[in-house]
Write a structure and sequence with these properties.
With 551 residues, the protein is mainly β. Helix content is 1%, strand content 60%. The strands form three sheets. It has a 26-stranded mixed beta sheet that branches.
């Protein structure tokens, strides 16, 4: 999950509809990146880019120029430590950027600077232990800091957050050639990452008015660290027409942080007039707060096993057959442990000329469970969410007639053996070489995601009075594995390669995407009694998309 400086990337691979059992823990795109290594020749490069705001153009729909200035510097250096045996490589990129947000609130107007900085670096050492064993060690750091984010429009400067992301990763790899048919790769990773979001006044109230949003955001400050230990071992073996591969991937992740949610509370007003204790029309209409411990500690253990075979059935036909097992254990949710993911891929040359390929496949892909789930089921579930209508101000209990008891709201998990989100993906396509270096392709893709985690209201409001089904309770929101989405697309492409001169290409996508929920941490239902009525077009629904490239 680490970001690497651009100059440290030697090769990358984007897998969209891939069916090898080796890849998992994601139901969408998989990105593989190979970082560069040093050689016997000492070499390097340095650079500096400066984008000055004086050269910015005005947006045609704006009355003034948006201020933007960025400075980027970096470079790389690689070479030998011991010729033919030990080499080093290092790369760094430092970015400084300033943007400006304009506040147009009733109580505040003007520009607020939003500084950004990032230090991104990577160091890699490779050592040839023996002719058959190669050891590599890598350290990377990525720590962007964005200040005063969220400011602008009705959000005053006090609503801004300082968003710090840190990622320190240590990776070791041992690659061993066991025979002329057998290869083993072992990798270990330790990473210390996370986010730390701070505000000007951590103990201040959140105040929402029609013309101004004052005070800190309701869910800040927060710190969500992530310490990860990961072990990966892959063994490959060539056996005649079979290329076998077996592997395991084990991760143990802990997060020990804190989160202020509606703490100390949120006041909502329907007027911008200053508060007057003698004028009831200036009082807030509601006050929302959470009571309970703001700290948490979560653990997440993922275990994956796979076996696959690239079987060359005939010189014109190759089958990729495999199966994968994924198990997820996470605080606050009892997830189903029986998750088998079969995979099948086919590549066929129908004419035996090497110019035409018919390809396709089927696969089941399970999605790893993120910390959003225990935030709701193990953190918010242990807090009391209290809503007071017609409260006092600044003490919500000071207004005469404030009820002594108020509805309590809560979150909860669905139950035992909750299903893990998964995607069933099918693709079929064809590629044809029309002339040397010129190829066209067309593919149909159909992906159906099921058992998506979503929030479902279990104490809905009912007409005609729109009171809750149980009026003595507030909301009861359950994280269920009942969401679903559907995506289908036709991909058409053309690509022309020139000898030693690069290539030019174009791709067109016709697609449709629908879902009940974009993520597990939002409420999407128009009718609490029927959460499936939220099914509709999603962010993946880019009906027509055309991309052209020259490089």
């Amino acid at each position: 999950r680490s970001n690497a400086p651009p100059d440290s990337v030697e090769e990358f691979q984007v897998l969209t509809s891939q069916f090898n059992a080796e890849f998992g823990n994601a139901s969408g795109l998989v990105l593989n990146t190979i970082t560069r290594s040093g050689t016997n020749t000492l070499q390097g490069r340095g650079y500096y880019f400066h984008r000055d705001q004086g050269m910015d153009a005005r947006n045609a729909f704006a009355t003034s120029k948006a201020r933007f200035e960025q400075k980027q510097g970096g470079g790389w250096l690689g070479g030998p430590i011991i010729k033919d045996r030990t080499h080093f490589f290092g790369s760094v990129e430092i970015t400084r950027r300033t943007t400006v947000a304009t506040v147009n609130a009733v109580v505040e107007q003007g520009d607020v600077k939003q500084p950004f900085r990032n230090e991104n670096a990577l160091v890699k050492i490779t050592h040839q232990l023996t002719p058959m064993h190669r050891l590599a060690g890598r350290f990377s750091v990525d720590r962007p800091l964005e200040k005063k984010q969220g400011v602008g429009g009705l959000n005053t400067s006090g609503r801004g957050i300082d968003y710090q992301t840190t990622d320190y990763a240590y990776v070791g790899t041992l690659t061993s050639i066991l025979s002329d048919r057998a290869l083993n790769e072992f990798r270990f990773q330790y990473s210390d990452a996370g986010i730390d979001i701070q505000v000007d006044d951590p103990e201040g109230f959140t105040i929402n008015r029609p013309g101004s949003n004052i005070g800190k955001p309701a869910n800040q400050p927060q710190a969500i660290p992530e310490v990860r230990y990961q072990f990966v071992d892959n063994f490959s073996y060539e056996l005649g027409a079979h290329r076998l591969k077996f592997g395991t991937d084990i991760s143990h992740i802990t997060s020990d942080g804190y989160l202020y949610q509606n703490n100390p509370g949120v006041f909502t007003f329907t007027t911008d007039r200053p508060f007057d204790p003698a004028d009831l029309s200036t009082y807030p209409v509601s006050f929302l707060k959470n009571e309970g411990d703001v700290t948490f500690k979560f653990t997440n253990t993922n275990v994956s096993l796979f076996a696959q075979d690239a079987w060359r059935v005939h010189q014109t036909l190759t089958l990729n057959v495999g199966v994968r097992y994924d198990m997820y254990r996470i605080t606050g949710a009892d997830m189903d442990a029986f998750n088998l993911a079969p995979r099948l891929g086919v590549a066929w040359d129908p004419f035996g000329t090497g110019k035409t390929t018919v390809r396709g496949g089927f696969g089941v892909f399970y999605n790893s469970i993120m910390f959003n789930v225990p935030i709701f089921t193990a953190f918010f579930a242990n807090q009391r969410s209290i809503l007071i209508n017609s409260p006092g101000f600044p003490d919500p209990y000071s207004r005469p007639g404030t009820p002594g008891t108020v509805p309590i709201s809560t979150y909860r998990a669905e139950g035992d053996d909750q299903a893990v989100p998964r995607t069933y993906s099918v693709t079929i396509g064809m590629q044809r070489e029309l002339a040397p270096g010129l190829a066209v392709s067309a593919d149909y893709v159909n992906s159906r995601s099921r058992k998506l985690i979503r929030i479902v209201e279990k104490n809905p409001t009912l007409p005609p009075a729109f009171l809750r089904e149980d009026p003595t309770r507030g909301f009861i929101r359950e994280l269920q594995s009942t969401g679903y989405s559907d995506y289908q697309a036709v991909w058409v492409g053309i690509n022309k390669r020139f000898a030693n001169r690069g290539q030019v290409g174009a791709a067109y996508t016709l697609s449709s995407g629908k879902t009940t929920n974009e993520a597990e941490n939002g409420l999407y239902s128009m009718d609490d009694r029927d959460p499936d009525d939220a099914y509709g077009y999603n962010g993946n629904d880019e009906r027509h998309r055309l991309v052209a490239q020259l490089y």
